[in-house]
Design goal:
Elements lengths: L2 H17 L7 H4 L13 H4 L9 H10 L5 E10 L2 E6 L7 E5 L9 H4 L5 E10 L4 E5 H5 L1 H8 L6 E10 L2 E6 L12 E4 L20 E10 L4 E5 L7 H8 L5 E10 L2 E7 L2 E6 L20 E10 L4 E5 L3
Parallel strand pairs: 3-5, 8-10, 13-15
Antiparallel strand pairs: 1-2, 1-4, 2-3, 4-5, 6-7, 6-9, 7-8, 9-10, 11-12, 11-14, 12-13, 14-15
Length: 320
């Protein structure tokens, strides 16, 4: 990847990794999510527009009932802040507060290039909050309508194929076989490091490489960056669940100490399955540090004291 594009890519990724929260929205959530409070700090009555200084609450209720997720609306930007922009919509919609969040402005341009007071905009409705009388808008949706429509049509669990287009320290970009290209990134599909594999690996190259064909499961539509969040490991057997099928609390088994941490020791009890012996469970006599009892590489007999399938956590004890 060229130097300028690399810097731009890292800048855009750092934008939400270091400063803004990453907002991942599944298609189902997109159809029901309320407008977020993150748009403005003002009291609600200051955000709601009015005609001739009067606002009929019943009118607002009826207007909001008629607005649907996916509607395309137009209006004029009336205020710009660090959290986005406030928009006065055309017609009767002007009675309702409308906001473009900072993360919904653009996938390929800086906010200052897109939102200015007085500018006319056309955006897609992505959220409706009846309680706050607010409409959430996305300019990115109308800026990239083909890509937005493609991503919005994806469903969690759907299987997609493509080619690894680029490998970065924060994840892997996948150029999908179907759908449009991305205006900035080398691929519309993106796999975070944890979603590459269930097994432990030290380098991404142990799992995938540029040019490799992959088949992944869709996790969600990342509206912040216009990406399909994908999982490679979701289509593989989970060794922890396979272990949990045969294991139970109180069961004793042998394992190998793989890592010592201030609060305990990790022990491998099966291939790609490790559990934690908390410091309090290392010995009958309390220890101040795990290396007073165990060392990496030690074989140790342990008992399962807790097994959580959902969080994939295994708690062990040497005291039982």
């Amino acid at each position: 990847m060229a130097g300028a594009r690399q810097r731009d890519l890292e800048c855009r990724v750092a934008k939400y990794r270091d400063g803004y929260p990453l907002r991942q929205v599944t298609t189902a959530a997109l159809a029901t999510s309320p407008a977020c409070d993150r748009f403005w700090d003002k009291p609600d009555h200051e955000n709601v527009g009015s005609v001739d200084g009067a606002t009929d609450d019943q009118d607002i209720v009826e207007i909001l009932k008629a607005v649907q997720i996916g509607d395309v609306v137009s209006g004029t930007i009336t205020e710009v802040g660090r959290r986005g922009a406030s928009v006065r919509l055309d017609g009767r919609l002007c009675l309702v507060s409308a906001d473009i969040g900072a993360l919904d402005v653009s996938w390929c341009r800086l906010p200052d290039e897109v939102i200015q007071v007085g500018r006319r905009v056309t955006a897609e409705v992505i959220a409706v909050d009846s309680e706050q009388a607010r409409i959430g808008l996305s300019l990115a949706a109308t800026e990239n309508p083909e890509l937005w429509a493609f991503l919005k049509g994806l469903r969690p669990g759907e299987v997609l194929s493509g080619v690894v287009a680029d490998v970065q320290r924060f994840g892997v970009f996948v150029a999908l076989d179907d759908g449009p290209s991305h205006p900035v990134y080398p691929g519309v599909g993106f796999i975070t490091i944890p979603e590459l594999s269930w097994r432990h690996f030290d380098d991404v190259s142990e799992v995938v490489e540029v040019g490799q064909r992959v088949t992944c499961s869709v996790l969600c539509f990342d509206t912040t960056n216009g990406e399909a969040r994908l999982s490679l490991r979701a289509l593989e057997p989970d060794p922890f669940q396979e272990f949990a099928d045969a294991a139970h609390e109180g069961q004793e088994l042998w394992g190998t100490v793989t890592k010592l941490v201030p609060f305990g020791a990790f022990v491998s009890v099966a291939e790609d399955v490790a559990g934690l012996i908390h410091l309090d469970e290392l010995a009958t006599i309390p220890a101040e540090a795990p290396d007073q009892v165990l060392q990496v590489g030690d074989r140790v007999k342990v008992a399962i004291i807790a097994l959580d399938r959902y969080s994939r956590r295994l708690s062990l004890s040497c005291r039982r």
